[in-house]
Structures are given as structure tokens and as C-alpha cells.
Amino acid sequence: MADEVVLLDYWLSPYAMRLRIALALKGIEYERKEEELNNKSPLLLQSNPVHKKVPVLIHNGKPICESVVALQYIDEVWNDKAPLFPSDPYLRSQAKFWADYVDKTISGFARKLWSGAKGEEMEAVKKDLFDCLRLFEGELGDKPFFGGETLGLVDLALLPFASWFSVHDKFGTFSLEAECPKIPPWVKRCFQMESVSESVPSPDQLYDYVVKMRNSRQE
């Protein structure tokens, strides 16, 4: 029997973007079901009764919640190509550490940047963000990707948020290239991969979306 794979998704969710990239890298065919966050489907509520959030990966009727958990599941079940986690136990533990660090720090900065903070509060958010991103620059080093020559767990964890930071760069909130010069070229390399460019909105698409939203609020 062929695998039945369903992704409960929302196109702007950075956590769902992670799974879209992973499924594309692995060449897995799946049914994508777009959720309305203000009108969640019975399937989502049934599949993720604890958090009631996307993404949820459903494999042959069995739901897997939380993006990093789902990424590990994808890597273990479809292990014949495009490994996401290092095979070495130590390197795997380090990748999990950095992915967890994304969720505990970078995701919070992303929310604060859109919260309407101004003045000293915004400057403090930016300083903390840049300090964190510089740590990631140190981890990236001279490698093309955090996973080495190919995308890995840390790339998939960080990339969706880094795309949003590029939007702030376009609005003049800050200059990512000036503060963290390794991050923009890394984002560009990621989007040169078909598995990324066809799976998630580009920084330009996100920018256009924000412009439309701002204009609609002013009308």
C-alpha cells in the first residue's frame, strides 16, 4: 500500500515551512491542506488536540505534531535520500541544540519585531537579535549550509525566520547585511535550491504581502 501523507499547513507559518522543505528534499508526495487559523478544521483539532496548531504531518492516518519532531520522523521514515540529521551522535546532538535555540530565541524576536515596538525598545530587540544571529554565523563558519554541503536540520529551522528578517531589511528596520554579513548570502544559497524556492514564500513575496496588508489597514 502506498504511503498516504497529509500536511495540515498555513502558508505563512515558519514551522510549516520547515516541513514543506523537508518533504520536497525527500521527494515525498503529499496532500497539502491549508488551514484557516480563525476557523480551524475538525481534522486539525482532532490531530493536534493539545496545541491545536499547524503544522501537523499525518502519515497513514497517524498525526505527528511539532515541527522538529516531525522533521525527525520524516528523516527516519524516508531515510534513503537527503538526510536532515547528522549520522554522528555528537553532531546530531549539536544540530538539535541549535534547532532548539532557534525556537527559544529567534522565533521570539520575530514576534517582537512585528509587535510595533519603537525607540529604545526596538533597539534592544534588534541588539539581542543580532547577538543571536552572530552565534549562528559562528556555527555556519565557512560552510555553505549549516548541514555542510547540503541543507540540514538547522538550515530548515532557521531559514523561515531569516526570510522574514529580510523583509525588515527591505523596510529599513535594520540592515541585516551590515550586522550579520553571513546570513543574507546563506539565505540566497538556500533559495537557489528548488526544494526551497518551490516550497516557501521568497523574501520578495513576503514583502509584497506585508505591503498589501499595511495598505489595506490604511484604507
Keywords:
about 220 residues, alpha+beta, single chain, 4 strands, globular, 10 helices
Contiguous runs where pLDDT drops below 50 for at least 5 residues: none
H-E string: EHEHEEHHHHHHHH
CA(first)-CA(last) distance: 53 Å
Task: Please bin the fraction of helical residues.
Answer: 55-70%
Q: Give the number of helices.
A: 10
What is the strand tally? 4
Category from helices, strands and their pairing: alpha+beta
The outline comes out as: globular
What oligomeric assembly is this protein in? single chain
Numbering strands along the chain, what is their spatial order in the largest sheet? 2-1-3-4
In what range is the share of β-strand residues? 5-15%
Fold and architecture overview:
The chain has 219 residues and is an alpha+beta fold. Helices cover 59% and strands 8% of the residues. The protein contains 10 helices and 4 strands; from the N terminus they run βαβαββαααααααα. It has helices at 14-26, 42-47, 67-77, 89-113, 119-140, 153-171, 176-179, 183-191, 194-197, 203-218, and strands at 5-9, 31-34, 56-59, 62-65. Strands 2-1-3-4 form a 4-stranded mixed beta sheet. A hairpin with a 2-residue loop joins β3 and β4 (62-65). α1 (14-26) crosses α6 (153-171). The longest helix has 25 residues, at 89-113. The termini are far apart.
